[in-house]
Design a protein that fits this description.
Radius of gyration: 21 Å
Order of helices and strands: HHEEHHHHHHHHHHHHHHHH
Structural class: mainly alpha
Distance between the termini: 32 Å
Oligomer: single chain
Largest sheet: 2 strands, antiparallel
Strand content: under 5%
Mean pLDDT: 92
Length: 467
Amino acid sequence: MEFGIILIAPLVAALIPLVVRKSRGMIEAGTLIAIILEVIGVLRLGLDVASGKTVALSSYLALDALGTLFAGVVALVGCVAAVYAIGYLREETKQGNIGMSRVRQFYLLFNLFLFSMFAAVMTTNLVLMWIAIEATTLSTVFLISFYGRPNTIEAAWKFLIINSVALLLGFLGTLLFVSTAGNAAIDPQILKIAFVLVIIGFGTKTGFVPLHTWLPDAHGMAPAPISSLLSGALLNVSLYALLRFKMLIDPVVGEYFSRSLFLTFGILSVVVAAFLIFNQRNYKRLLAYSSIEHMGIMALGFATGGAAIGVALLHMIYHAITKSLLFLASGTIVLKYKTSKIAGVHALSRVLPLTFPLFFFGLLSITGVPPFGIFYTEFSILAFLMADNPVIAGVMLFSLTLVFVGVVKHITSMMSGERPDTVTSGEFNAWTIVPIGFLALLLLALSVSVPSIIDTLLSGAAQQLDL
């Protein structure tokens, strides 16, 4: 029953904007009800998985500990983004930036996006997983070009072309994996070639350097609720696909091959993103490069293996919450200042007295400042790396320091100065404040203590991956 709710609810919600032409409230309510049902469904399945029950609807739909963690992240980020989107789109309409047709388009594609991500982490079939992840490309490309401006259209085309070509390579790798299934005499070289194709294909969508070139434009140009989903959910879903293939190849060719690839892409992502963050002039692109950095940190955790795997999965949860908080807060800042350039934002603490402390709270978390959970996960991975590869650990430590200095420099600039004459002080509405505040409280709570159900799922997922 839960599987049906999770997959059918977003499809029904996507149909409402097609049928209802003028009732904005009905469209918003349909999406809210759907995402609440999806959250409840994932929670119920998560309890079953944590208790050791077999959770499967068919040979094609099932959830284990790893899939449940990623489904939970999609549900959480999707729910908060849906709530925030109500206030965000109402303000966009009030300012004359969009009309009702754009609102209907948003909710149609928003729900299809959620459906695709849930399908990707709930299917046991590799080809269906690839189809679902490709479907996320088709649904989000129109959301990236949502405003119809030349720069948003360019970002959407870039997103579509780069990801479609990459996923085509990923599909070839997927077919090679499928063709070797059940083969008693598997050629390890074929699987190595297949995994390289897969990591190029899905690694592009994960945002690994040097495959990341689409990401800053897409995250920077999309509406804030979609940016939060791209960073907090979609990157993780693509990483989930890579982990599934890693579980298939490691028993055959050994862990060293996949670990070396994860290590290479991981350290490249962390280092390149750190320098780009330090020199960044656009705060939404800064957050996008921060996503690249943290996907790299997760890759380093998975490359290290052992206890670092569970820490990397916990880092994924902390990052999803924090980055969603930051992108949603950045959406409010863009609405207020009409720019995403750091140089165009001044006196932020006085203009947005509620949004600013939440934004600052998120920045402290994302840079790994104690007592936030990312401090624990980053430096745990750093400690594991120090024992295994001290040179890589030293490079990572330097990069983390550079990111911290860069973020402090940028937020100081946004806090200082005089309020622009064209900007009025004050928040927009409760819809744009409550979701961000909820994420901040959740992040703080999880930083202090991880609930037993999440801890159980983390342990189960780590055992699956540490073959």
